[in-house]
Write a structure and sequence with these properties.
CATH topology of the largest domain: D-Maltodextrin-Binding Protein, domain 2
Distance between the termini: 37 Å
CATH class of the largest domain: Alpha Beta
Organism: Streptacidiphilus fuscans
Number of strands: 15
Shape: elongated
Protein name: LysR family transcriptional regulator
Strand content: 15-25%
InterPro entries: ArsR-like_HTH, LysR_HTH_N, LysR_subst-bd, WH-like_DNA-bd_sf, WH_DNA-bd_sf
CATH architecture of the largest domain: 3-Layer(aba) Sandwich
Family: Belongs to the LysR transcriptional regulatory family.
Order of helices and strands: HHEEHHHEEHEHEHEEEHEHEHEEEHE
Keywords: DNA-binding, Transcription, Transcription regulation
Length: about 350
């Protein structure tokens, strides 16, 4: 959204005092830039959220809203309740603002395709582990393939990242997901499955017979290294615990895999990890008890209307190439018990099943 306003030429000075040639709609003169602002107010849920997304003060956004109401000749916001809500007229004009924003994005895409050059800023949100695994490599790929792009890498968890994607603060978001409970794709975004892996049960050294099987009964009544609620590792553990009747005495919580490694090294308790992370532990071992489910790494990218945004498309392609490079490096180490799938042909959970599948 911020990029759309930039393409419309909306600077801080213009936001305070717009003098652009207005568009005429149903006999009413309306400034299209203010319709873009109204769209952001509708999507963000209020003036405060819109001002944060646009990078302007709430008073500046409020002034533009008041001027748009004056142009329209009808109230666009109902201020009688505890919170400001758009009126029917406000919702109608916000929809037109959305169409203007989509048209600007389409125009940008076609213009860039005509010139064969992708340029401008692109913001990429990634979870912490992805930064070291493959995301920084993607920046090098982008510098080589699209030197006119200005990528911005932001560490972002799933919840914060989804909010930033909806507000237009991110163009691309990488999320870790679980195959049994994939994150719904937000409106105006497209998903791509980049990486698919299994889960593994990992035990600290000294737990059970080093070369022998572990009994599920030995995993109950002992501490576990857990994960944030609703995260892929947490969902995998819940399935594993339900299948084998495991009840921890306490669940420690580790957000990132490096924290899991440290807790395993300290002998705190077992953990569930994606296979590609489990095989890299140095102070523990992988048990042979199967863990149901699949671990996913997906990218969500903003789309302009029904068409891709070129900068976001370029970023996704670079991320996919970087992921492939990381997987190849893992494969070259000949690590046992790891067979992740990395392919542009993987079907994302948001896609409809193909015929015969």
């Amino acid at each position: 959204m911020r990029a759309e306003l930039m393409h419309a030429g909306l600077t801080q000075a213009e936001l305070m005092d717009t003098s652009a040639v207005p568009a005429r709609m149903v006999g009413v003169e309306l400034d299209p830039k203010r319709l873009l602002i109204l769209r952001q107010i509708a999507e963000g849920g209020g003036v405060a959220a819109a001002s944060r997304a646009l990078g302007h003060t709430p008073s500046a956004v409020s002034q533009q809203l008041q001027r748009l109401e004056k142009e329209a000749g009808v109230p666009l916001v109902d201020r009688s309740g505890g919170r400001a809500e758009l009126t029917a007229a406000g919702r109608l004009l916000a929809e037109y603002g959305g169409r203007i924003g989509d048209a600007l994005a389409d125009a940008e895409r076609e213009l860039q395709a005509l010139g064969g050059r992708v340029s401008g800023p692109v913001s990429i949100g990634v979870p912490g582990p992805a930064i070291t695994f493959f995301a920084t490599t993607a920046l090098h790929f982008l510098a080589e393939s699209h030197p006119a792009l200005t990528p911005r890498l932001v560490e972002a968890g799933r919840a914060d990242g989804l909010r930033a994607l909806r507000l237009g603060e991110l163009d691309v978001l990488v999320i870790q997901d679980d195959g049994a409970a994939p994150t719904p794709v937000p409106p105006g975004a497209t998903a791509l499955l980049m990486f698919e892996d299994e889960y593994r049960l990992v035990l600290p050294y000294g737990w059970g017979t080093p070369d022998g099987p572990v009994e599920p009964s030995a995993l109950s009544g002992v501490p576990w290294v857990g994960a944030p609620e609703g995260s892929p590792r947490d969902l995998a553990f819940r399935r594993f615990a339900a299948e084998h009747g495991v009840e921890p005495s306490v669940e420690h919580r580790a957000v990132h895999r490096f924290a899991v490694y440290s807790m395993l090294a300290a002998g705190i308790g077992p953990a569930i990890l994606p296979a590609h992370s489990a095989v890299q532990i140095t102070h523990g071992r992988i048990a042979d008890l199967p863990v149901p489910g699949r671990f996913l790494v997906r990218t969500l990218r903003r789309s302009g209307g029904s068409t891709p945004v070129p900068a976001a498309e370029a970023a996704v392609a670079a991320l996919q190439s970087a992921m492939l490079r990381a997987a190849e490096q893992l494969a070259s180490r000949e690590l046992p018990g790891i067979e992740p799938r990395v392919s542009g042909r993987l079907r994302d959970p948001s896609e409809k099943p193909r015929d015969g599948q």
